[in-house]
Structure to design on (295 residues):
């Protein structure tokens, strides 16, 4: 796993623990266990009667988490699954949740793995699957979808204002095989002044990744299922990394608050400190929101 390099540095760990308040027994769910960074910190506060359920769809993440969580004093159950299935997994373990965490998006390990998640990895294939058993990958979308469909994906997922021009360029350049092929299409589609704009490239890659991994659909389903199973006083904490995710979480928490079954704990999202961003630049876009079950 890359020598001594950590699998992933957990973002906003202090804030997560403060809001989640892990303690004693119960079932604690880490919907995005990754390399087990946050999970290890949660487990360190749990007693032997507690269970940590760690979910991830990436088998390499689960291997790293198993190694990291060896020797924890609480019970640890690691499940390879899409977190939209979290409700079923929780039901198998008794049905009520003391606290739950989502640390969304991509781990450092996935970004550095050469499977198309990083826009710097120009020779990497257009894969972008977190679940390697899934059929659909990014190359399928750019090479098979219609021009309008590609433009819609870029606009819907990343608010990309050049979505139509970029989609037209992609369709003309087919077949695309690598991240470099895709980045060239972006360069060629943008007006001259934008040619070096990495933020457009990042948004295009993000939009495709979100589509491949059904990120917003997964998030909506799992928030609903897990928050419904929270015990009174149990908390849900979500770290998101782009505006689409953050908007979905905000709207879900606010609407449950209006309906009277969740209480929003963060009227505005918390952000990582400047000090943390310097230490771990990948934490910079993080937004943390939390809510508590009231009945
Ligand atoms: C940012 S990383 C989590 C890192 C973790 N908190 C840590 O400290 O090591 C996000 C992880 O969530 C997983 N993931 C994202 N969406 C998922 C989904 N819908 N179902 C299951 N796992 C998912 C990814 O595979 C990735 O390993």
């Amino acid at each position: 796993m890359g020598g001594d390099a950590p699998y992933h540095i957990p973002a906003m760990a202090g804030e997560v623990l403060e809001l989640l308040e892990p303690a004693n027994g119960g079932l604690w769910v880490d919907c995005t266990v990754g390399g087990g960074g946050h999970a290890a910190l949660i487990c360190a506060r749990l007693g032997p009667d507690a269970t940590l359920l760690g979910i991830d769809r990436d088998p390499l993440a689960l291997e790293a988490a198993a190694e990291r969580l060896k020797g924890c004093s609480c019970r640890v159950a690691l499940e390879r699954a899409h977190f939209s299935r979290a409700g079923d997994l929780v039901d198998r373990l008794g049905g009520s949740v003391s606290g739950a965490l989502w640390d969304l998006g991509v781990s450092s390990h996935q970004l550095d793995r050469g499977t198309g998640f990083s826009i710097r990895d120009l020779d990497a294939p257009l894969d972008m699957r977190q679940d390697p058993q899934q059929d659909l990958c990014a190359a399928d979308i750019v090479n098979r979808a219609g021009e309008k469909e590609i433009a819609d994906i870029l606009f819907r997922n990343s608010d990309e204002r050049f979505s139509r021009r970029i989609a037209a360029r992609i369709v003309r350049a087919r077949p695309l095989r690598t991240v470099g092929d895709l980045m060239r299409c972006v360069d060629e589609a943008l007006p001259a002044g934008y040619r070096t704009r990495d933020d457009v490239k990042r948004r295009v890659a993000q939009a495709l990744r979100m589509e491949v991994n059904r990120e917003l659909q997964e998030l909506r389903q799992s928030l609903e299922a897990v928050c419904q199973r929270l015990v009174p006083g149990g908390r849900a904490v979500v770290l998101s990394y782009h505006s689409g995710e953050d908007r979905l979480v905000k709207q879900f928490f606010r609407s449950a608050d209006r309906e009277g079954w969740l209480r929003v704990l963060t009227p505005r999202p918390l952000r990582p400190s400047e000090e943390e961003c310097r230490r771990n630049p990948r934490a910079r876009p993080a937004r943390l929101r939390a809510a508590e079950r009231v009945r």
About this structure: The mean pLDDT is 95. The first strand starts at residue 24 and ends at 30.
